[in-house]
Amino acid sequence: MGDRDDLRKFISDLAVVHGRVVLSSGREADWYVDLRRVTLHHEAAPLIGRVMLDLTADWAYDSVGGLTLGADPVAAAMLHASAGTDGAVDAFVVRKEGKAHGLQRRIEGPDVAGRRVLAVEDTSTTGGSVLTAVEALREAGAEVVGVAVIVDRGAGDAVRAAGLPYRAAYTLADLGLVA
Predict the structure, then answer these.
(1) For the segment 66-100, what is each residue's pLDDT rounded down to a tens digit?
(2) Cβ atoms of residues 109 and 81 within 8 Å
(3) Dist CA 95 CA 8 (whole Å)
(4) Phi, psi angles (nearest 5°) of residue 137
């Protein structure tokens, strides 16, 4: 099996939780994809980095990140997987709100101003979190080249309507789930 198949197995075995839940979008579902069980797993995280880099290999960017917390381990996995390659990328974290102390930065990590960046998320239903990150990145002077998620729960249309290319490593159908 390759990285993509191996990661799909980790997601199916560890992250898919059955039972009634309320999503961050406010919608209810009979199952939940808890990707932090995978993005923070010692064997799965390296797979995430490689799968997401492969998914976006034809997009030119030099930094990756998104709204904390869902994007943080995805960006870190991509940073580590790219280290030592010709396509090495930095990572950044977008805070939900700017800090009121210290440097008062909303985006932590290497400066994104003037850089081509990729916005990522672990999973997205409405696109709200990743589009919040995109807004903050643009305000900071970054050029957002696209949005990529591990699992798409339906955010593609909203992200594309905002004028951004969108890719997902897996759809719900890929995981044997129905919306």
Answers:
(1) 999 999 999 999 999 999 999 999 999 999 876 55
(2) no
(3) 29
(4) -65, -45
